[in-house]
Amino acid sequence: MIRLVMADDHPMVREGIRSMLKRHADLEVVAEACNGTQAIEAVAKTRPDLLLLDLRMPDMNGPEVTRKVLASYPKTKVLILTTYDSDHDILPAIEAGANGYLLKDVEPHVLAQAIRDTVAGSTVLNPTAAEAVSKALRPATRPALSEQETRVLREAAKGMTNRQIAEHLYISEATVKTYFSRIFAKLEVSDRTAAVAEAIETLGLKSEQ
User: Fold this and answer.
1) What is the CATH number assigned to the segment(s) 147-203?
2) pLDDT confidence band for 154 (50 / 70 / 90)
3) Architecture of domain 2-137
4) What is the mean pLDDT of residues 166-174?
5) In DSSP terms, which residues pair with 3 in a beta bridge?
6) Which of 146, 158, 166, 199 pairs as cysteine with 203 (C-beta 3.0–4.6 A)?
7) What is the pLDDT at residue 209?
8) Spatial CB neighbours of 48, under 8 Å, sequence gap ≥ 6
9) Which residues contact 99 (CB under 8 A, 6 or more apart)?
10) Distances 172 to 144, 145, 151, 177, 178 between C-alpha atoms, Å
């Protein structure tokens, strides 16, 4: 039997989830809470296998509740069930230690299985949450400038104008402008000064002024 505490500030949501979970003999709601403080108290009193937690509640948000619960009761799993799916909402919850993140439009049988999987030790994420976590864990890639783009940027670091760069590299001024457009796009900047500063910081380009 999996024992769980359900925390949500909307009575109708709690009633709906409770009714759904009653159909599963292996899932039992042992306590309910309408805010973060009550959720922590309920976990302390019942020591459930899982806390099914809303993300936003009146007195304390989901990540804060998650941190406090796991700090005192690390064996309790936390599964976030919410309507919010932005990176700004997802990542703080996962960083706080939540074991899963699902949206409230999830199918009932999927939620029931997610509870089982979370208690069993799996990390359960809906596709949006999985992508947010993947992006957060993905190492930042350094912009790859071509050899000629690097030359142009190095000349710019010396304080040369577009015309001077063109003459020095034996290319047209229009070509220099094209290179700068590519450089700005790769470095995600909008002007020469920012491009040089970014290249010095992230690419190891040395200013020779």
Assistant:
1) 1.10.10.10
2) confident
3) 3-Layer(aba) Sandwich (3.40)
4) 88
5) 28
6) 199
7) 45
8) 3, 4, 5, 30, 31, 42, 76
9) 77, 78, 79, 118, 122, 123, 124
10) 23, 19, 14, 9, 10
